[in-house]
Design goal:
The chain is an all-alpha fold. 31% of the residues are buried. It has helices at 2-17, 19-27, 32-61, 70-84, 88-94, 99-126. The chain has 6 helices and no strands.
């Protein structure tokens, strides 16, 4: 399980660290560079959502976790499911300039925080 979390951890943390820059580029940006940043952020939001879906599916394929990890695994799956359910994995891949993608990317911004919180709880297992 820890290896699944580790596989995507850096991408989720990196996206979380860039939320403010992404929002500023999206809302206040008017230059060509701002527009490129906003598109990149939307693609990254889609990737975060897709990776959450993949990680959750892979965790569910594993055997039942040890009892002492049960609560952490449940929290992890809830956070990943929420991130995957944002819709960005579909809408932003289809058309990253659409209003739907923008709305879904905004949902990713809220859903990434619980994932990062759960990542911190995995530190004893992921090193």
């Amino acid at each position: 399980m820890a290896s699944i979390i580790s596989e995507y951890e850096n991408d989720w943390r990196e996206y979380d660290a860039k939320i403010v820059d992404c929002a500023l580029s999206e809302v206040l940006g008017s230059s060509v560079l701002d527009k490129i940043k906003a598109k990149t952020c939307r693609v990254t939001a889609a990737t975060a959502s897709i990776n959450a879906n993949l990680a959750a599916k892979n965790i569910r394929k594993l055997d039942t976790p040890p009892k002492e990890m049960g609560a952490l695994v449940a929290r992890t799956l809830a956070a990943l499911d929420s991130l995957a359910a944002t819709g960005a994995g579909k809408s932003c891949v289809t058309d990253n300039e659409s209003v739907e993608c923008g709305n879904d990317a905004t949902k990713v911004n809220g859903a990434i925080r619980p994932v990062v919180s759960v990542l911190d709880a995995w530190k004893p297992y992921t090193g």
